[in-house]
Amino acid sequence: MIILKSSSEIEDMRKAGSIVAAFHQAIADMIRPGVTTLDIESFAVRFLKENGARAYTMGYNGYPFATCASVNDVIAHGFPNRKPLKEGDIVTIDIVAEADGWIGDSAWSYAVGEVSDEARKLMQVTKECLYLGIEKAVVGNRIGDVMHAVQTHAERNGFSVVRDLLGHGVGREMHEEPNYPHVGKPGKGFRLKEGMVFTIEPMLNAGAPYMTIDADGWTARTADGSLSVQYEHTIAITADGPIILTAQ
Ligand code: MF3
Ligand code: CO
């Protein structure tokens, strides 16, 4: 069942969303060669606490951290670690905050120093996919319309869209219905209604869309070792168009 949110509930969701957004703004300046993803994790734990938010992923299905840190060929759900980031890496930091009983969820990819042309293009195109999808997230459209825009832009640029990890509804819990991949056909899938709140979170690979999971049970990597990038916002569907709750 898809839980629709009233306009006052959507207003209440802005707090968690804005904390997540402020976190991403803060780490943008922090990410450089030599910094570790555990440094970013520690900052996240402190930042959420100072802002009166709870680190929702910590302990979620046994996930041990407040952030996911996914470097280079890691698609998603990478564990923060002590290895310093190095020039040319790309890292996706995903964070989920709970504030006043509501969730905000946003992942963002960052370049570490100067990155390759391929990495820069992958980042650019993935971000464009996110915003092209958001543009289509209007009442009356279907999820297939949204994801067709994402998929078409990705593939036209020579990249592939990960199918095995899904977008999701967001509310009092991180994962609500509906769930959907970031590929689709126009006119297919559920119809977008006022009061829906869900993520648009395309993961694009430079190579094939397939993934493997590490022995830790979480870390999702590209099967072919190619680079992967993700941008994610939590959005609310309203009569006046989509609201990006996690806008930076
Ligand atoms: N933000 C991720 C998502 O979009 C999930 C959080 S990672 C988890 O689903 F490890 F906590 F599950
Ligand atoms: Co998410």
From TrEMBL:
It catalyses: Release of N-terminal amino acids, preferentially methionine, from peptides and arylamides. It holds the Pfam family Peptidase_M24. Monomer. Belongs to the peptidase M24A family. Methionine aminopeptidase type 1 subfamily. Keywords: Aminopeptidase, Hydrolase, Metal-binding, Protease. This is Methionine aminopeptidase. The lineage of its organism: Bacteria, Bacillati, Bacillota, Bacilli, Bacillales. Its cofactor is Co(2+); Zn(2+); Mn(2+); Fe(2+). It comes from Paenibacillus lactis. A divalent metal cation 2 binds at residues 105, 168, 201, 232. Its EC number is 3.4.11.18. Residues 11-239 form the Peptidase M24 domain. A divalent metal cation 1 binds at residues 94, 105, 232. One of its GO terms (molecular function) is initiator methionyl aminopeptidase activity. InterPro entries: Creatinase/aminopeptidase-like (IPR036005), Pept_M24 (IPR000994), Pept_M24_MAP (IPR001714), Pept_M24A_MAP1 (IPR002467). Substrate binds at residues 77, 175. NCBIfam families: met_pdase_I (TIGR00500). Removes the N-terminal methionine from nascent proteins. The N-terminal methionine is often cleaved when the second residue in the primary sequence is small and uncharged (Met-Ala-, Cys, Gly, Pro, Ser, Thr, or Val). Requires deformylation of the N(alpha)-formylated initiator methionine before it can be hydrolyzed. Binds 2 divalent metal cations per subunit. Has a high-affinity and a low affinity metal-binding site. The true nature of the physiological cofactor is under debate. The enzyme is active with cobalt, zinc, manganese or divalent iron ions. Most likely, methionine aminopeptidases function as mononuclear Fe(2+)-metalloproteases under physiological conditions, and the catalytically relevant metal-binding site has been assigned to the histidine-containing high-affinity site. It comes from the Bacteria.
